[in-house]
Amino acid sequence: MKNILVISTSLRAKSNSDALADEFVRGAVEAGNPVEKIELRGKKIAFCTGCLSCQKTQNCVINDDAREIAEKMMNADVIVFATPVYYYGMRGQMKTLLDRANPLYTTDYKFREIYLIATAAEDEESTPSGTVTGLQGWIDCYEKAKLSGVIFAGGVNGAGEINGHKALEEAYKAGSNV
């Protein structure tokens, strides 16, 4: 059993990336893993100020929802980020959360496996590459962690357009095999 944390970064209710995340969750739960899903919609997460106090204290000086999320990230074995791809990059809220997870850098974090679940209106194979590169840059700072998988659903824009997309099955299988 692995402790899995799924972070949905879309601010749109019933988003396509959230639907993919739910399939990953379904597969992981059916495989017997404890899973917590956090949605950034409705959370207060301020920008990192770059003060680097967290490198000494392992806590951010900003008291908002990012502190609790970072603690959950630290204690998860697996972290799954679900994001829509905007302008060929990750959602801004996801990047802000990654920046605010800086207190984890000097801790004995548990996560080893990181997954990316992404959706976009564009359907080219290269569409999520900027998002993958951005997330990989964060992962590279955590030497015990690795990018374990990327699931991409292209050609979906409006809420619900993902219904019937083959990536839903891929997400379920990835969750089942964590």
Write a structural description.
There is one protein chain. The protein has helices at residues 16-30, 54-57, 65-75, 92-100, 129-139, 166-176; strands at residues 4-8, 35-39, 78-86, 89-90, 113-120, 146-154. It has 6 helices and 6 strands, in the order βαβααββαβαβα. The N and C termini lie close together (9 Å). It is an alpha/beta fold and 178 residues long. The model has no long low-confidence stretch (mean pLDDT 96). The protein has one domain: 3-Layer(aba) Sandwich (Rossmann fold), CATH 3.40.50. Strands 1, 2, 3, 4, 5 and 6 form a 6-stranded mixed beta sheet that branches. Helix 1 (16-30) runs parallel beside helix 6.
Give the topology, please.
Blueprint: E1 4-8, H1 16-30, E2 35-39, H2 54-57, H3 65-75, E3 78-86, E4 89-90, H4 92-100, E5 113-120, H5 129-139, E6 146-154, H6 166-176
Parallel strand pairs: 1-2, 1-3, 3-5, 5-6
Antiparallel strand pairs: 3-4
Helix pairs in contact: 1-6
Q: Concise description?
A:
The protein is an alpha/beta fold and 178 residues long. The chain is built from six helices and six strands.
- Sheet with the most strands, sense and barrel status: 6 strands, mixed
What fraction of the residues are assigned to beta strands by DSSP?
15-25%
Helix content: 25-40%
Gyration radius, in Å: 15 Å
Helix and strand element order = EHEHHEEHEHEH
CATH superfamily: Flavodoxin domain
Low-pLDDT stretches: none
What is the overall pLDDT average?
96
| Helix/strand structural class | alpha/beta
The count of domains is 1
Count of DSSP E strands? 6
CATH class equals Alpha Beta
Terminal-residue CA separation = 9 Å
In CATH, the topology is named Rossmann fold
Shape field: globular
